[in-house]
Amino acid sequence: MEITPELRRAVADAGQEHVLRFFDQLDESGQRRLLDQLSALDFKELETLIAEYVLRRPRIEIPPDLGPAPYFPLHPADSVQGVYYQRARARGEELLRAGAVSCLTVAGGQGTRLGFDGPKGTYPIGPVTDRSLFAYFAGGIRRAGEKYGAPITWYIMTSLLNRAATEEFFRQHDFFGLDPHRVFFFTQGTMPAIGYDGRLLLAAPDSLSLSPDGHGGTLLALRKSGALDRMFDEGVSILSYFQVDNPLVPVVDPLFIGLHDLERSEMSAIMLAKTGPFEKLGNFCVSEGRVQIIEYSDLPPELAEKRNPDGSLAFIAGSPAIHLLSRDFIAHLTAGGSLKLPWHRADKKIPYINDRGEKVTPAEPNGVKLESFIFDALPLAGRVMVLEGDRKSVFAPTKNATGVDSAESCRTMLVERNARWLEAAGVEVPRTADGQADVKIEIAPEAVLDSDDARAYAAGHAVTLPRGGEVVLD
Ligand code: UTP
Predict the structure, then answer these.
(1) Which of 215, 296, 370 is the pocket-test mutation for ligand 1 (most atoms within 8 Å of CB)?
(2) How far is the CA of 109 from the centre of ligand 1 (A)?
(3) pLDDT tens digit string along 230-242?
């Protein structure tokens, strides 16, 4: 197989000839694989990225006028706002009944911290059964479709690495009772990993070390995959965006959707009151009238610790990565078939093939992966709406196997949320002396979507919760 002179020149001009070191020893399919990967790269752009993000550390400029972003509080501040929230909730429900909302789950990440072999969405997270993360979302989407009388199309972004396994999991589980035609998988882009010396790393003689390009890749992938066209065809104007590791998230939230619409927002976000100045959540900020998220590691300590006169944190708003995106905003941003969001550098231990063809598994970080983040689209939106969420009802991230933000803490939060729903519905929940639910409760999301559903469920079933026991309500 021949390498075109143009490609050879581009590779050489960028100082990356080592990626062709094994080319002549490869069989035809190996050669084709490597050539396909190389042809997909823009070597000029890559050179700039390497100079800016790898050979030196990018400096995050903090704008001098940076302030906290305004948001709608969890509970309306006064009766006027109370009436507005009621109107918004009704508007959200109207949009759901009209079938104007689809769901979008980003599931292309590698889930390295969880250390689980398989796509993260297949992880068993049920407090009692092995119900998977995907099953939680699927159940919620199914129930919301029934509740509002309009089936919801579910867009799932995977990566090249986990697409096949993800689709297979859905087939094995009969799409969790969803209409398979309403589940739309699409694949995000990849970025090559780069060693600290600025050279592209090879994962094998016939392959670059490629990894998903971050959830910022979602927007362009929506266009390239035909998902955006489908939204136009189906008359869907809003996408409810959430991450694959948060089974507590309401898949659709009428108040959030209604406020997004009434505020004519292009991109909206849920914010949570941070538990402390340095909690590891992105911070909602505003500069020159544009909302943006500054990562926790980039917010200067003097701003992170700044207090209001009443003692509360000035930069209180943290991001749980729950968004609404207007279809027309996505269409506008990606109109030219490209979208440049800033890159973020992550230093990683990246296994690679050295010049002698030996596999090296480094003990220390040896290179950089570049990712773009969806929240960097916020400052590109003409209008942004931020709504405060109730942490214990919307955010239980499963990042690690144990400890903080782990499968364990997530299961506890699911049980506690279920306990609160049932208590509000008049069911007695046994609790320990320190107030924790003393029974493991799992509720099938396809049976109960929200507290109203829980009330109806409790009215129609004899629910008893034995102390120290396990109960599955479905
Ligand atoms: P995380 O930042 O938690 O990354 O992703 P991760 O890859 O899942 O986990 P670690 O860092 O390797 O442990 C947040 C969300 O964004 C998705 C993930 O699937 C998760 O839902 N994501 C992340 C993508 O869809 N694509 C990406 O390239 C990165």
Answers:
(1) 215
(2) 3
(3) 999 999 999 999 9
